[in-house]
Amino acid sequence: MGYIEHLLGENERVLFQTRQHPLVLLRPVLGYGIPAGVLIGLAIAGGFLSPPFTLPMVIAGLALAAIPLTLLIRSMLRWWNEVYLVTTRRVVQVEGILNKNVFDSSLEKVNDVVLRQSLWGRLFNYGDIEILTGSEIGVNRLNRIADPLRFKQVMLDQKAMLGERQGLESPGGGELEVLLAQLETLRRSGLLSDQEFEEKKQALLKRMGHN
């Protein structure tokens, strides 16, 4: 079982998963990858020199290349391990290679979602998401994430679904057939198990006087 699976509660499922757009790796590739390639090239070229320059040139080139190469690998691992999730209950941000940091916002506390996309963001399908919540954090920013429109859509759809579920559990929820249809929708979406569906259906029928 992976780290993400350990974060999920009982009957909680991941609906959508994304991370920062791969374009964020362009800067470390240019900043670290190119210098590493140049130094490795110099080390290889040093192998064609006449002794006593051959071995020192190769060793120096490879040793210097190891520094930007290590920084490049670290940047790529950091990118890969920073994940954004929409589950059936919350929005989760996971970051860190060895030491993990997890930030989550309950969908029930989300007040608004702001999507910001530049021209390049629309062309390459990335953008910034701001999640406005009623918690102490207030605003949770997800920068340059891939497929932000889908992320926002899944999050808002699930929030609406949770609102429907809460409405069913409160008195005076509406006409019987409408409530039963909503229960069926929740069951098909996986928010209610078959057993929970039957229990809530019977409780609803009893409450509405259909014993």
TrEMBL record:
Residues 80-138 form the YdbS-like PH domain. Keywords: Membrane, Transmembrane, Transmembrane helix. The chain crosses the membrane at residues 29-49, 55-73. It holds the Pfam family bPH_2. It comes from Candidatus Thermoflexus japonica. InterPro entries: YdbS-like_PH. It comes from the Bacteria. This is YdbS-like PH domain-containing protein. The lineage of its organism: Bacteria, Bacillati, Chloroflexota, Thermoflexia, Thermoflexales.
